[in-house]
Amino acid sequence: MPEIDALFESINVRDLLAGHDLNDPTTPLSAPDLRLLINRLESHSLRIKSKVQSYLVAHHSEFSELFSTCQDAVSRTRLISDDVSDVLQLISDRPIDVEIRSVVDEITEKTKEVKLKRESLDLVSAIVGICEALQETKEALKGGRFRFAAERIRELKVVLRIGEEEEGEPLAYVLLRNEWSDCFDEIQEVLAKFMESAVRFELDSRKLRIKLIVGETTGIALSTVLEAMEVIGMLDYGLAKAADSIFKHVITPAVTHASTFAAVEDSSKTSGEITEATLKLDQSSDHKIEDVDGEAIYSGILKVVKFICSSLCFGNVTWIHSFGRLTWPRISELIISKFLSKVVPEDASKLADFQKIIERTSQFETALKELNFVSPSDAEGRLSRYAEDVEVHFASRKKIEILAKARYFLLQCNFTLPQELAMRNSSFKSDGVDVNSSKHMVRLLFTSEMCVVSEAASQLMHLVHKTLEDVCVSSARVASEFYHAARDSILLYEAVVPVKLGKQLNGINQAAVLLHNDCLYLFEEVLGLAFEYRSSFPSSIKEYAVFADVAPRFKLMAEEVLQRQVQLVMSSLQEAIDGADGFQDTHQIKQFESAKFSIEQVVFSLEKVHMIWEPVLRPKTYKQSMCVVLESVFRRITRDILLLDDMAADETFQLQRLIHLMLENLSSLLGSLKSADDASRPLDDLIPSLRKTRKLAELLDMPLKSITSAWESGELFSCNFTRTEVQDFIKAIFTDSPLRKECLWRIDDFSQ
Hints:
Blueprint: H1 2-9, H2 13-16, H3 31-58, H4 60-93, H5 96-143, H6 146-159, H7 171-198, E1 199-202, E2 207-211, E3 213-214, E4 220-221, H8 222-231, H9 235-256, E5 261-270, E6 273-283, H10 295-312, H11 317-338, H12 355-370, H13 382-388, H14 390-412, H15 419-422, E7 429-430, E8 433-434, E9 441-443, E10 450-452, H16 455-472, H17 476-500, H18 510-533, H19 539-542, H20 551-578, H21 589-613, H22 619-642, H23 649-665, H24 667-674, H25 683-686, H26 688-699, H27 704-712, H28 715-718, H29 723-733, H30 738-749
Antiparallel strand pairs: 1-2, 2-6, 3-4, 5-6, 7-8, 9-10
Helix pairs in contact: 5-6, 5-7, 6-7, 6-8, 7-8, 7-9, 9-10, 9-11, 10-12, 12-13, 14-16, 14-17, 16-17, 16-18, 18-20, 20-21, 20-22, 21-22, 21-23, 22-26, 23-26, 27-30, 29-30
C-alpha cells in the first residue's frame, strides 16, 4: 500500500510547529504550542483513517480472496494431521519396523552364505587344479619331459606362494606346499644325477668326458637338462659339482704345469649324431721351455674354457655366465698365487720387463669377456689390476724381505766380539788385524770417532742405507714402501734387541756395552739420514719422510744402558766393600784377612770391568765411566776408615798395607785410564777420592804435628779432607794429651 506509506511518511513534527524555533533543543514548548500540536495530530489521524477505509473498500475483492486461501490452507493442514495420527496409531498397534529389520538381516545372512559357498567352491576348484598340476608334473618327470615339469614347478611356486607363507592359511595349502617341495626335490635330484653322469673326468686316461645324451633307457639331451635346471633356478647348484671337477682336474694343471699342458678335443658319434665330447690332457713334448710371460697358461685355460662353452654350455650365455661365476674367482686366485705373484720382479730395474705379462693378462681377460665367461660389468679385471699394480706388489714383497732380513740380523746376532777385538788394547790394531775393515768397527758420523758395534747394528744400517738409495731412484709408490721399510727396520732394533738381551742387561757383560755403542751409532746414523738422502727423495716422499723423531730414542737408550751398567758395577763393588765390615780391628788376623779379601774382590771386579769395557767403549766414555766407578770405591773406603773412632798402632799399619795393596793392584787399571784419551786433565782431578786415599795412607803413619802442619798448609784440604774428618782421625789414632788438645785447637782455629 504505497499510498498509506506515503501518508505516514508525510507526518513531520517540525512542519506542525513551523512557527516555532526548533533549532535550539533546550528551548521548552509553551502550552499553546502543545495544544496546537495535539490538534494538528488529531487532524492528521482522521485523514489517515479516511484514507485506510477508502483503500480497503477499493480492494475488497483481493482481501476476500486472500482470506479464502488462508482458510483452505488451514483445512488441509487439519486433514494431514488426522492422517498422520491414523498412521501413528497403526504403527503403535503393529511394530512393522521390527519385521522389516528381521527380513533385512535374513537377506544379509543368506548373501554371506552364498558368498562363502562360492569362495569355498573356488578354493576347492583351485586345490583340485593344483593337485592335477602336481600330478601332471610327476607324470612328466616319469616320462622324461623335464622342461615341461620344470615349468610346472615354477608356475606352482608362484601359485602356492612358496616362501610367503602366512599364519591361518588352509591346511590344504600346507599339504600342497609339502607335495610341491617333494616334487622339487625329486626333479632337482634327478637333474643333478644327470649332470653328474654327463660330466666325468677319468684319472687314468686323463680325459674330460661330456655326454651330450644322458639317461640309461631313454636318451635325454644334456641341453634339455640344463634348460630344466635354468627354469627351476638350480643352474648354479647343478653345475657346481661339474665346475669343481673341471677346475680341480683340468684348469689347475693348466696353471701349475703350463709348460707340459696340452689339451686335445675329440668327439664320439652314434648314428651320425655327436653323443660325447672329449678333452684329453696330453704331456707336451716341449716341456723344457719356461713360461715366463704366461702365454702357455693363458692359452691353455682359454682352450679349456672354449671347450666348456661349446660342449657343456652349448653357447648359451646364461649357462656360460653361471659356469663362470662358479669357477672364475678360483681361477683368478690360482693364476695370481701360482704365476703372477711369482714373476713379480726382484729388482726395480726389471719392472719394465713385466709390461709384456700385463699385456697378455689383459688380452686373456678380454677373450674371456668375449666368450661371456666373465661378465663385463663385473669387477673381474682382478688379474689385470693385479698385474698393473706390480709396482705395489714388488714394493710390498721387498718391504717384507727387508723387514725379514732386518729381523734375521737382530735375532741371529749373539752380541759378542771376535777374540782379536775382545783382547785388543786401546789402539785399534791388534795382532796385525785391521779392525777398520771389520764389520764391528764403524766411524761415528758427527764425532768421527771409531766405535765398536755389534754385527747386527752394522748390517742393519747397511740394509737401511741400501733401501734409502733405492728410494731415491724409485717411483712414488715404490719409494713410499721402501721408506717405511727402512724406518720400520730401524724401529725393529728398538723393539727386538732390548727384549733379546733382557737377561744380559741385568748383569755386567759385554753385550750391554755393545748395546750402548749400537744405540749411539744408530743415533748419529739415523740423525744424518735426512741430510744424506732427503734431497734425492721423490717429491711426494719429501712431504712426510722424517727420521728426526726416531734418533732421540736411541740416544736416550744408550745413556740408560750405560748408566745401568755403571750402577750395577758400583752396586757390586759396594757389596764387596761391605765384606770388610768397615775395616774395623784389622790388627786382628781374622779381620785383616777379611778386609784383604774384600779389597781383592774389589780389585778383581774392577779388572773384570776393565776387560769388558775397554775393548768396546769409546776411550772417552770408558774413561768417564771407569772414573765414576773408581771414585765411588775410593770414597767409600776412605769414608769407612775415617769413621773408625779408635785405631791402635798395629791397626794403622795394617790399614796402610791394605791401601797400598789396593793401589798397587790397580796401577795397571789407573795407567790405562791415563792413556785412554788425549785429555791432559790429571787423573786425580777426575777421581778426587784417589788423591785423598793416597794421602790417607800417608797420614796413617804420620806424626801428630806433621798432620797438623799439613792441615795448616792446606795440603789436606786440597786432598778433600774436611776439618771434622782430620780432627776425628787424630782422636782415633792419638791418645788424649796436651799436645793433641793443642793440635786440635790449632786445626779448629785455622780456617782454609
